[in-house]
Amino acid sequence: MRGDISYVTPNPAALALNSALKAAAMAETLRSFLETTPSVAPSGEQGMQYRNDCLTSLYDFFEHSMISVTMSFQSLELFANAIIGRRAKGNVRAKHRKLERDFAPSEAERALSTEEKLSQVIPKLMNVRNPSGTSVWNALKDLQKARDSAVHLKSLDMYTNYESMDLQTLFFVFLNEDIRQYPGKALTVINHFYAQAQPRWLAAANEISQRDRVIGS
After folding, report:
1. How far is CA 94 from CA 28, 78, 126, 143, in A?
2. Which one of 42, 135, 148, 157 is most buried, by most CB atoms within 10 A?
């Protein structure tokens, strides 16, 4: 009969960040394998398309990009819940659905949005200024928009046609932006709450992010 198994519990936000950083690095590596060839639209307009023999790399690129986006945002949710769980010794007060009231910590984790937690609850628990209205908040909103697009993918994002090529569909955004920006935005938000000493997991994530950008530049 097998005995009890134990292990050191990992930091969930660190796991999500690490997954996002790995996926972003892989996406940018795959980008170098993507090659285009001239094409002609049904209208007769000249254009470019990705070569058929690159499609495996292209789809892998999209896959890792979606993982990076979703896990980057997930790291913020996990970070916020961990802080509430560890630091809230009683009810926390927040405005939710236009009503300000007290929430038990476990209820706050379930009911409040990530935005509400990071703007109303976490700043008080960590004695840090509210990031709303700052560049940190812009990073959060950008990341949230990308995450929502990836999780709630619309039909327009699923097809490529010449009529929609000027639209900012998810896959075209991925192809025209550095995927490493997504975990970078998550780090921007979390770093805001650790203006002084950083925990080891966050310092390690920052180091990996900076290293990957140097290697990729």
Report:
1. 40, 18, 15, 23
2. 157
pTM as predicted:
0.90
Q: Specify the pLDDT at position 208.
A: 95
Contact present, 114 and 144 (Cβ < 8 Å): yes
Q: Kindly tell me if the per-residue pLDDT of 165 is higher than 60.
A: no
Domain membership of residue 7 (yes or no) is no
In a domain, 1, yes or no: no
Helix, strand, coil % over all residues of the chain, rounded to 5: 60, 10, 30
3 occurs within a structural domain: no
Q: Within a domain: residue 6?
A: no
Q: Residue 102 has which token pair?
A: 């007290």
Question: How many folded domains does the chain comprise?
Answer: 1
Cross-strand pairs, 38: 48
Containing domain of residue 129, as a range?
Answer: 12-216
**pLDDT tens, residue by residue, 41-58:** 777 788 888 999 999 999
Q: Would you say residue 166 has pLDDT above 60?
A: no
